[in-house]
Amino acid sequence: MHIANPGRLAGWLAVTLVLAFGLLLAPAVLAQETADRETATAVVGVTPDTWRLVRSGEVDANFRDSRADSNYNLVNASGEGWRQWRNRWVSPFGLIAIGGMALMIAIFYLLVGRKTLDEPRTGRLLLRWSVLTRALHWSVATLFILLALSGLNLLYGKFVFRPLFGDAIWGAMVSASKVAHNYLGPLFGVLLVVLLLKLLRHNLPSREDLTWFKKGGGLTGKGHVEAGFANAGEKVWYWLLATAGVAVILSGFVLDFPNFGQGRDTMQWANLIHALGALGLTAVALGHIYIGTLGTEGSFEGMKSGYVDESWAKEHHSLWYEEVKESAETPPAPAQAPPPEDGTLPQRPT
Predict the structure, then answer these.
(1) Bias category Pro residues: which stretches (predicted)?
(2) DSSP for 230-248?
(3) Least packed by Cβ within 10 Å: which of 128, 231, 246, 308?
């Protein structure tokens, strides 16, 4: 095949390629041009000095975020400050507090062991916790554990469960934790306040508390430390719940109900207060749970059945024991099955 003018054909091919390449780049060029035109119209003469002013807040209304009647700058420095506080201080604090408390409990248990009763049980029981108090305690305790687990998952779970299970399962876990935390939180707050009001009269400070602290709750010195219905250690836990716990509740309500007009700065402060208080209470709660279960003989029985043995009351709450010892009672022996009418003894099952 003879080509009359190869140069002209090559020229047409080059023009065709240039036009095709131009058509491919046209959408991106037009988009960039549109974006630049919009930026030039919305923010005229933007310079580095302008953005420094935006960051500092020394600008007029043209440089402010107008969404949802917001008065915040387009560059919100407080948001970055909140992120730094959360990642550099709050999260490490939680790991140190909770992990440190768990380690201390394990070391204490290995070195000291369980605190058993010095005197044998008498079998005579004293009523310590009413049905209503126990119902409130177990409801608050259950909600506390669920909220602690869901909160820890929201704060640290992505570093543990996301690499193990992948994004799909991790996403479902986060969603479930968030829903549970948001809906159970207000219920926990109401029940905790009711429980605190019911136990207030037992947790007022007294002179015996100083002696209890001096003797380390009986860990140092000889003899038992006198205490009323609640000892000084239990009172400390009560007032932590009444202060830090109430702060966690109030900050949680601020976060849970953003429809009452609180601003972004308020939400950021509420988040930090909520996280710090909740992490600190979770760490102390580990000690409370240990003492009330594995650490002290007889303590869990009291919150389970409502009754404690005389020996337990005399050893741990001697002043309260002196007030109520006359009401101690011996539980009835379990009923035995009547013998058969023919007089034969029942055979033991094989």
Answers:
(1) 331-341
(2) S-HHHHHHHHHIIIIIHHH
(3) 246
